[in-house]
Design goal:
It comes from Mustela putorius furo. Keywords: Coiled coil. It holds the Pfam family TSNAXIP1_N. Helices cover 66% and strands 2% of the residues. The chain is built from 21 helices and six strands. A two-stranded antiparallel sheet has the order 1-2. Helix 4 packs antiparallel against helix 5 and helix 13 packs across helix 14. The radius of gyration is 55 Å and the shape is elongated. The N and C termini lie far apart (121 Å).
């Protein structure tokens, strides 16, 4: 008698339903529910299969050590006439025929496993279900061991449920581990770049110190040689003066001898002397001898006292020379001591540098061992990554660093994603939403080209410059322009399309400036003033071109720049001339095609000359506001009054006229110019604003220096 095969899918569903209780914990009620469900299911099957799985309370003695052993794979018990053969196995010798009950269990298990869908993720979970059913058959047939077997099964079920909960709890940790690994890799790369930069600085400093040491050593050797030379000259001078002293003494003795001889000869040759009175002559001789004795004594005294004395003139010269040499020696000695101290310090720095170098070298080796390679930007030349292939990628990547290349790549990827979108979701009607984007529902993506968007923005600027700037706000004007251009029904779709494009292409000059003005991050007066400045430069260069040949000299270019920017520093003018084509080897007579400085490419990008002009304007504005902050002497979160801000502006820029000054104050305090109090009428505790907010508001508007700092304030 054949029995009906149970529906494995419904049973599996029931088991999965009761497999895990809500709340993530397993309690006694949950185990009781599992046991009751299984008992009900088994009791239904037992009614149908009792004749097949019960053998009169006798079990097959088929041994486990038989040679025909069978592993239970994909088998299930069948309902073939089992009772007819209930006693036949007793007549078979042991180890020859497998028990029918075992064969039915194996056939049942095989069929159940064949019905499973092994392509799903829960294959291993479903694979256990047929084995559970086989085990339940054993529990029901072996009444004696049913409590023990049931407790074993429940213990395994509880452990399986616990393991499943543990796996589910560990899955978020795996994702967190991946994120932490990426953050650590980025920090390692940043640390490596910083260490490479510091190592290069230390190497340059080491080379400079070594050069300084060599220079000091050379100076020391030259000073030592000079000192030895001076000592030699001093010894020679000393010997020369000794020789002169001895010669002087000999000369004096010779002169005295000659004088005595001359006196004796004169006495001998004078005939009138013998006619003198002998007494008188005797007295004269006596007096002469006394004078001679006194003179001889004085001479001996003079010799004793001044024998080693040199002339005052020579003494003063030698004293001056000695003093100079002493000063030089003291200076050299102090320099030598300083050089020795610096040498010791440099030796210490050198040893410290060597230790740091060894440490950095070991860290560098460790980093090189564990580091990842730098990005290979040549892979972006593939046409599948960047449209246009290698030529366009090389044009985009020219002169850009890795950070800028990432921005370029993001724009290219964003452009591809933007073109894949057919609709944009509306942002609603919230107060934070710009007026031209307030819409519910979906709007169509018009998918214009980048060039079309730039041309549309240029047309909008042209119309804005024709109209009165104060007639309506710029966002309202933009939406009115779209309604006039494409009609009211298409205006919102074009507004979303253009907004997404200008928000994506931040590196484009036209789109970035339009986005800043549209979102209120910059006043439109900044753009208008910049265009007026460029137009004025072109006009004056055209006036300087008297022959209307399209070229001017470098001298004309310098004159035009200095007349238009009288307060720019000389190096700023030099930078603009270099961007215009001037170089140190060029002369003032060199010709320049000035019209090429003001052309734009197909994407609206200006030439380097106009870009440098804009960069200088931004830098000068930042310097102006930083100088204003230093003049106020306040922190960013301190409050500043209107009189104090007025005074600070006049101090840093005395050339400000009253109208321009009131315009700056009106922008900083968000007041109409008609409501600003006159100078001297303000109250110190009246109108106040936080300094950070005031600087941000001034940063948005067109603010620039109107005079030199040395200029006296205008009355």
């Amino acid at each position: 008698m054949a029995f009906q095969k149970p529906q494995s899918s419904s049973f599996a569903t029931t088991s999965r339903t009761h497999m895990r209780p809500s709340g993530g914990t397993i309690d006694d009620s949950f185990l009781t529910e599992i046991k009751n469900t299984q008992n009900r299911k088994l009791s239904q099957k037992q009614k149908t299969l009792s004749c097949q799985f019960s053998i009169g309370d006798q079990l097959s003695p088929w041994p486990t050590y038989t040679t025909d052993q069978t592993i239970l794979h994909n088998r299930k018990p069948c309902s073939y006439d089992y009772r007819k053969r209930a006693g036949s196995w007793q007549k078979q010798p042991l180890g020859i025929t497998k028990p029918r009950y075992l064969e039915q269990l194996e056939n049942y298990l095989r069929k159940e496993l064949l019905l499973l869908d092994l392509s799903t993720d829960s294959t291993q979970e479903l694979r256990l279900q047929p084995y559970r059913e086989i085990f339940d058959f054993f529990i029901e047939d072996f009444k004696t061991y049913k409590p023990l077997l049931s407790s074993i099964k429940n213990a395994y079920e509880v452990m399986l449920a616990y393991q499943r909960e543990k796996i589910r709890a560990l899955e978020p940790l795996k994702a967190k581990l991946v994120t932490v690994n990426e953050d650590c890799n980025e920090r390692i790369l940043a640390m490596r770049a910083e260490e490479r930069y510091e190592i290069s600085l230390l190497k340059r400093e080491k080379m400079n110190l070594l050069k300084l040491i060599d220079k000091k050593n050379e100076e020391k050797i030259s000073l030592q040689s000079e000192v030895s030379k001076l000592r030699k000259n001093l010894a020679e001078e000393y010997l020369r003066y000794l020789s002169e002293r001895d010669a002087r003494k000999i000369l004096i003795a010779d002169l005295n001898e000659l004088r005595y001889q001359r006196e004796d000869m004169s006495l001998a040759q004078s005939p009138g002397i013998w006619g003198e009175d002998p007494v008188k002559l005797t007295l004269a001789l006596k007096m002469a001898r006394q004078d001679l004795t006194r003179t001889q004594m004085e001479l001996n005294t003079m010799k004793a006292n001044f024998g080693d004395v040199v002339p005052r003139r020579d003494f003063e010269m030698q004293e001056k020379t000695n003093k100079d040499l002493q000063e030089q020696l003291d200076s050299l000695r102090s320099d030598y001591e300083e050089v020795c101290k610096e040498h010791e310090i440099l030796l210490q720095l050198h040893m410290t540098t060597l230790k740091e170098r060894d440490q950095f070298h070991s860290e560098l080796q460790e980093i090189q061992r564990t580091s990842t390679p730098r990005p290979d930007w040549s892979k972006c030349e593939d046409a599948d990554v960047v449209a246009g292939g290698p030529d366009r990628w090389q044009k985009l990547a020219e002169g850009k660093n890795s950070d800028q290349l990432v921005d370029v790549l993001l724009e290219e990827i964003g452009e591809g994603l933007l073109r894949e979108k057919d609709f944009f979701p509306g942002l609603g009607y919230g107060e934070a939403i710009p007026p031209f984007l307030r819409y519910d529902g979906f709007v169509e993506n018009k998918k214009p080209s980048k060039k079309d968007v730039i041309n549309l923005l240029k047309d909008a600027w042209k119309q804005r410059l024709v109209e009165e700037p104060q007639k309506e706000k710029f966002p309202d004007f933009f939406f009115s322009f779209l309604e006039h251009r494409f009609g009211p029904s298409e205006a919102m779709a074009w507004a979303y399309t253009i907004f997404e494009n200008i928000k994506l292409f931040r590196s484009n000059e036209v789109m970035s400036q339009f986005y800043a003005v549209l979102m209120g991050k910059r006043s439109e007066s900044v753009y208008i003033k910049q265009k007026e400045t460029v137009a004025q430069l072109l006009k004056e260069m055209t006036n300087a071109d008297s022959q209307n040949e399209g070229v001017i000299t470098m001298e004309n270019l310098s004159t035009v720049l200095k007349s238009n920017f009288p307060f720019k520093k000389e190096e700023k003018i030099q930078e603009l001339m270099e961007e215009g084509g001037w170089h140190p080897n060029s002369s003032n007579a060199d010709l320049l095609n000035y019209r090429s400085l003001f052309i734009e490419d197909e994407e609206g990008q200006s030439m380097p000359f106009v870009q440098k002009l804009w960069e200088q304007y931004v830098d000068e504005k930042d310097e102006y506001l930083q100088e204003l902050k230093q003049e106020l002497g306040l922190e960013l979160y301190d409050e500043v009054t209107l009189p104090r801000l007025r005074e600070a502006l006049m101090n840093i820029d005395p050339g400000l006229d009253k109208q321009t000054l009131n315009g700056y104050l009106s922008r900083a305090f968000q007041l109409p110019m008609t409501e600003l109090p006159e100078e001297g009428e303000e109250k110190e505790e009246g109108i106040v604003v936080r300094l950070k907010i005031a600087l941000e508001r001034l940063q948005m508007t067109d603010i620039r220096r109107m005079g030199s700092q040395e200029q006296e304030p205008t009355s």
